[in-house]
Design brief:
Elements: H1 5-26, H2 33-40, H3 44-50, H4 54-70, H5 80-91, H6 96-113, H7 116-142, H8 151-171, H9 178-194
Helix pairs in contact: 1-2, 1-4, 2-3, 4-6, 5-7, 5-9, 6-7, 7-8, 8-9
């Protein structure tokens, strides 16, 4: 009996759920075709019908991470500097779920650095993030909450600060608890707000 598209889509959703469970439990280092097949109680042969190689599986896992992050509730109603702060706080590993998500993201860097196609995907993701940050920077500048300067540079600075803080918080959670992450971010934003204009 021929398979229907609905059956294929349902099985792919099952595979996606298993990929997510493996990522949550073992990170990218533990993401293998065998691990996902075991998680599903299936054979690797069945899994390779959907993902012929580990690279295909990793690419799908990165898409799942994007979708998972996009599905998280976002703060609303803020604008300008408050919206910028909320967007950056949303990236930090300041809750158990956010820490787990960030561990998966950081774990994916190794695979991405070793593969030009995956690296390009990561670069595009971070570029989109900078665009969102830049929009908040421009609004804060329009409101007079940030001094006039190149919004692209400010967005890149803010993103770089947050990414560095993520790494420190993941490796030294006791030294960088959530309240310290917030304090450091607020200090960075305050420095941006009081920065003198360039020549």
């Amino acid at each position: 009996m021929p398979r229907h598209k609905g059956d294929h889509d349902a099985r792919r959703r099952d595979v996606s759920a298993a990929v997510w469970r493996v990522l949550a439990a073992h990170g990218f280092g533990g993401l293998t075709l065998r691990a996902v097949a075991t998680e599903m109680g299936a054979t690797t042969g069945l899994l390779t019908h959907y993902f012929p190689s580990k690279k295909d599986l990793v690419a799908h896992a990165l898409t799942l991470l994007d979708e998972h992050r996009a599905a998280q509730p976002r703060p609303t109603g803020a604008e300008g500097l408050a919206a910028l702060r909320a967007a950056l706080l949303d990236i930090l590993p300041s809750t158990p779920q956010a820490a787990a998500d960030n561990r998966i993201w950081v774990g994916s860097w190794d695979a991405a650095l070793a593969d030009p196609e995956l690296a390009a995907g990561h670069a595009a993701r971070y570029a989109r993030s900078r665009e969102r940050i830049r929009d908040h920077v421009r609004e804060a500048q329009r409101l007079g909450e940030l001094p006039p300067s190149d919004p692209d540079d400010v967005a890149a600075s803010a993103q770089s600060f947050v990414l560095g803080l993520i790494v420190q918080a993941l490796f030294s959670a006791e030294e960088f608890p959530p309240e310290r992450q917030v304090r450091l971010l607020d200090g960075h934003l305050a420095a941006l707000a009081t920065a003198a204009e360039g020549p």
